[in-house]
Amino acid sequence: MFHRSWRRLVSISAILAAMGATSGFAQGSEYYFPQVADGVTGSTSYSSSFLISNPQNKSNTVTICFTLPNSSTWLVDLRCLERPALAGRVSTRTFTIDPGESLRLFTSGTNALATGWAKIESILPLNVSEVFDVLGPSAAPVVSSEAGVLPAPLSTQFSFFVTEARDEPTYGTDVGTGFALVNPSGADAQVTATLYSRFGTLLAQRPFTVFQNHQTAVFVSQLFREVDFTVAGRSHGMVRFSSSVNIAMVALRQTRGNSSTISTIAVNPDSQLGMNIIYDREPNDTRATAQPIGALPTMIIGTINSPTDGRDVDTFSVTLQAGSVLYVVLLADMIGSPLEDVIQIQDAGGNAQLVVDTLLTGLRDHFVRFQVPASGTYFISHTGQGNTYGRGSYYRILLMAR
């Protein structure tokens, strides 16, 4: 349904970067890339690269699969300079990557142009990303434009910034925004796209279906044909997507003028908006240097390690109301960290407060419940027992009060 201008859509195909994150590979990690482009159209060719590194201290088994938008398997001419044995015309390739090894797998860009999506599965977590290359006309084509992104998470809701412009002053040309969306589920995705102006006014809404294991790619101006994007020469706003099942997507901006360039747009799942996120920043060892926490709920992401690679205490301050209950969940053991957490809550005078501190059964991770006796500022002091500090002693703390 979104193919009014396929040649124009091809630009999206070659550059709409890849993001990803889930499927049915219960043994390990999954990474989705909603848009892959490979092949030649006219005097331009496209190639997609997958940059894979194994940070683990053991070998990792990896599978990469290519699928066409209609869910059919996609045979691509896969190349790998580091491991020529991985090359071939394949829709799926499984291989072992050694500890610390890095590989670049890429499509040859020599077939007739085709687009689709890719999934990478691995037994252990990987570092993986995708790069799109647009190669200009030449007997020996060279890269004229390149864009890359990280894998995208799956979610039922996404939002991203939209530009549709005919006289964007920064570029001196017109700019379009597009997206690629993949449904890796075994059920059809009933999706609703809603377009807002930069003032938050609802401009248009469009329901559509993405069948199971299908993918679609389209420009925003094509999806919302009823909207006049020529008003005042430029339109900025936001598109929000809501889906009945988890989907993955990626967005981009394309400038069109004397030359065509592509840049990617970060597409954040709205599930990340459910709580504030703050990061441990040193020094925060004392109440005087405590990091303030604003509105709850909040997730703290940190590491118990001092700037001199020594013992560390991370301290955070939060304002609480009398009679409320502060809930604290500490995650370290559960996420593969060697950290053995120690937590204490103090009032403004530095007095330790009575808390209910329970170890999650079978783990070193804590669940803390604190009944707030009086309104005011309280301090959460977090450290590690014994020698469980260091650059790998990372943690997450989830906070909620009610």
Question: Could you characterize the architecture of this molecule?
Answer:
The protein is mainly beta and 402 residues long. It has 2 domains: 268 residues, TM1070-like (Hypothetical Protein Tm1070, Chain: A, Sandwich); 126 residues, Jelly Rolls. The protein contains 2 helices and 28 strands. Strands 1, 2, 3, 4, 5, 6, 7, 8, 9 and 10 form a 10-stranded antiparallel sheet that branches. A hairpin with an 8-residue loop joins strand 4 and strand 5. The radius of gyration is 25 Å and the shape is globular.
Helix-strand layout with pairing:
Layout: H1 6-15, E1 29-41, E2 44-53, E3 60-67, E4 76-79, E5 88-90, E6 92-97, E7 102-107, E8 114-122, E9 127-135, E10 143-149, E11 155-168, E12 173-182, E13 189-197, E14 202-210, E15 215-219, H2 220-223, E16 234-256, E17 261-265, E18 268-269, E19 276-279, E20 291-293, E21 298-303, E22 313-320, E23 325-331, E24 341-346, E25 356-359, E26 366-371, E27 376-384, E28 394-401
Parallel strand pairs: 19-21, 20-22
Antiparallel strand pairs: 1-2, 1-8, 2-7, 2-9, 3-6, 3-8, 4-5, 4-7, 9-10, 11-12, 11-16, 11-18, 12-15, 12-16, 13-14, 13-16, 16-17, 21-28, 22-27, 23-26, 23-28, 24-27, 25-26
Jot down its keywords:
28 strands, Hypothetical Protein Tm1070, Chain: A, mainly beta, 8-stranded antiparallel sheet, 10-stranded antiparallel sheet
Secondary structure: helix percent: under 10%
Distance between the termini: 47 Å
Strand elements, count:
28
Radius of gyration: 25 Å
Q: How would you name the CATH homologous superfamily of the largest domain?
A: TM1070-like
